[in-house]
Design brief:
Largest sheet: 3 strands, antiparallel
Shape: elongated
Order of helices and strands: HEEHHHEHHEEH
Strand content: 5-15%
Helix content: 25-40%
Distance between the termini: 39 Å
Radius of gyration: 21 Å
Number of helices: 7
């Protein structure tokens, strides 16, 4: 981001730049069921895949013209509101459209990608993100569950020492 700032590519207030939801091709959109999806096809080859999957011509949008971003976002928002998140997942997941569903906390641990990566663990009945980063020679584990609500802070901190 500092490189973009230094080159003049990140100049406006929040919500007007390429990577802060200003651009229509790096944004989150609401679906027909009230759930959300995200798209981030910054490179032209990925934008072409997204537009093709949406049934649009490769030149349907001028994503490089920041002056048209608002109009393009509104048009894409209208398109994404025509189907449910599950329908968009069926159409776009596994492609190079740079697409992902926006998952609720209760959905994240059961998503196939999270399961394949072992991204979550359950300790003492609490589902939580697995320790990260992961190193092959020094694997980390969660050795105990969370402290109880009645636990004093000193007791909780002492548990970390052991």
């Amino acid at each position: 981001l500092y490189g973009m700032l230094g080159s003049g590519m990140h100049t406006g207030p929040r919500g007007t730049n390429l990577l802060d939801s200003g651009a229509p091709h790096y944004e989150v959109f609401r679906c027909a069921d009230g759930a959300y999806v995200s798209v981030a096809p910054i490179e032209l080859k990925f934008r072409k895949v997204l537009l093709e999957r949406l049934g649009l011509a490769a030149d349907a949008f001028d994503f490089d013209d920041a002056a048209r971003w608002g109009q393009s976002k509104a048009r894409l928002a209208a398109i994404f509101e025509t189907r449910t998140r599950a329908q968009w997942c069926e159409l776009l997941e596994g492609s190079d459209a740079c697409f992902a569903p926006v998952l609720r906390f209760d959905e994240a641990a059961t998503h196939p990608q999270a399961q394949a990566r072992g991204a979550f663990v359950e300790v003492a009945g609490v589902v939580q993100p697995a320790p990260a980063p992961r190193f092959s020679r020094t694997p980390s584990t969660v050795t105990q569950g969370p402290p109880t609500r009645s636990c004093r802070i000193e007791e909780a901190l002492e548990r970390w020492r052991s």
